[in-house]
Prior knowledge:
alpha+beta, seven-stranded antiparallel beta sheet, 4 helices, 15% helix
Amino acid sequence: MTLSVDLNELTPDQRYKLLTAVVLPRPVAWVTTLGASGVVNAAPYSFFNLFSKDPALVILGLEHRSDGSPKDTTANIASSGEFVVNIATPDLTAAMVASAASFASDVSEPEALGLPLAPSTHLTVPRLADVPVAIECRLLDTLTYSPERNIVVGQAVGLAAREGLIDSETWRVHWGGDYPVARLFADRYARLDEIAPQSIPPVPKKDIATP
Length: 211
């Protein structure tokens, strides 16, 4: 028997719990931003994905604090118009999760956690040096539908990758089995191990009756 759920009848917390447990796995954006005082912020977000290729758009869902005030990532993006999406692999999961703690605004998560930084090519905001790939983004738009969060739309303007990850002639990415970490639900994360190619088949041709 099918369970039918009216999502409008649930509390926001119940909707979050349910939807994040069925929409998975989700990619994680480990976002670095730069505050007005020069403090580098780093925080992970799993309400994230690519949206299009022309222009190349990146979407972030940035939750506010419980009192409705914007978190450091949201405030920094609004102020500077820049952010970097760092893509973490499983060996960096512990550090990524640690950066989600409620550090004070004047504390740099990378500095507190000993995460080395590297300069971006197209932005003032630095990237995390140990991630295999980082996407440099400029703010295009911010959408607000509730006091709970902002939806940030950014244009990807640059990409930095670890040596050997990308073939610059074919533009193929060679992960070598060490794929990015995926978010599941609650405190669960996943390693992508079983990867099976599935090509889209041609549309079957219908038999044409001959007279």
